[in-house]
Design goal:
Layout (H helix, E strand, L loop, with lengths): L1 E7 L15 E2 L6 E4 L6 E6 L2 E6 L2 H12 L4 E6 L2 E2 L2 E6 L2 E5 L1 H10 L38 H16 L4 E5 L6 E8 L10 E8 L2 E8 L1
Antiparallel strand pairs: 1-5, 1-6, 2-3, 3-4, 4-5, 7-8, 8-9, 9-10, 11-12, 12-13
């Protein structure tokens, strides 16, 4: 996979593109455009004045770059290394996405940069409630945390990410393209509303590409 990042002045609509570079706009994400399939597939992601181009064929990518240069004022930043808080690292094993710099800044802002490590993000036995536990005297730092047990849980989480600042997602170069999904539910587990908590994760080969957990 080849990925490039550029400064992009978005001064007109992508819809003006004539063939052969006419692309399809994403149905769920209007900032994503795709074209072709197989070895001819290429994707373009737009965010304000930045774009990311990725695909499996360098010649197709170079052709798209030349086409964009003819329509917009661009600055090529080369291989993608940092985008929207994500750090991208490459090796012969594949591509790793992490948020190391963001994590270190978060720990510094919360004064947890020198804290002790925690082995788990949260104690699985803890059940937080909006009505149990002592109220916080000063909630200005954590506006959405009503009580001290919530603050304790956040501090424990900060201790966990202190031990794993560079942990991320590996998209293996040798992974298959098989799509797998897993789901689970904890019925009636919310102590306040008795709502269930459900979650799912989706893997492309060995790489997790989507996940969520919610009431």
């Amino acid at each position: 996979m080849v990925i490039y990042s550029r400064k992009f002045i978005w001064n007109c609509q992508w819809d003006i593109n004539p063939p052969p570079h006419q692309a399809s706009r994403g149905a769920l994400d209007y900032s994503l455009f795709t074209k072709g399939s197989g070895n001819e597939f290429v994707a373009l992601l737009v965010y304000v004045d930045d774009i990311v181009i990725t695909g499996s064929n360098l010649q197709v990518i170079e052709s798209l770059k030349s086409f964009l240069h003819s329509h917009f004022k661009l600055k090529d930043l080369g291989n993608l290394k940092y985008f929207l808080g994500l750090e991208i690292a490459r090796s012969h094993n594949g591509i790793v996405l992490s948020q190391r710099q963001y994590v270190l800044q978060l720990l510094e802002d919360t004064r947890f940069l020198a804290c002790k490590h925690a082995a788990m993000p949260m104690d699985p036995k803890v059940r937080l409630s909006s009505f149990e536990g002592e109220l916080l005297e000063d909630s200005s730092m954590y506006r959405r945390l009503p009580r001290k047990p919530h603050l304790t849980a956040i501090h424990h989480l900060l201790q966990y990410i202190k031990a794993t600042p560079g942990q991320g997602l590996l998209f293996s170069a040798d992974s298959s393209l098989q799509l797998r999904a897993y789901a689970d539910a904890d019925w009636g587990s919310c102590p306040d509303s008795r709502k269930s908590i459900t979650g799912f994760c989706v893997f492309l080969g060995d790489s997790m590409v989507s996940w969520t957990a919610k009431k």
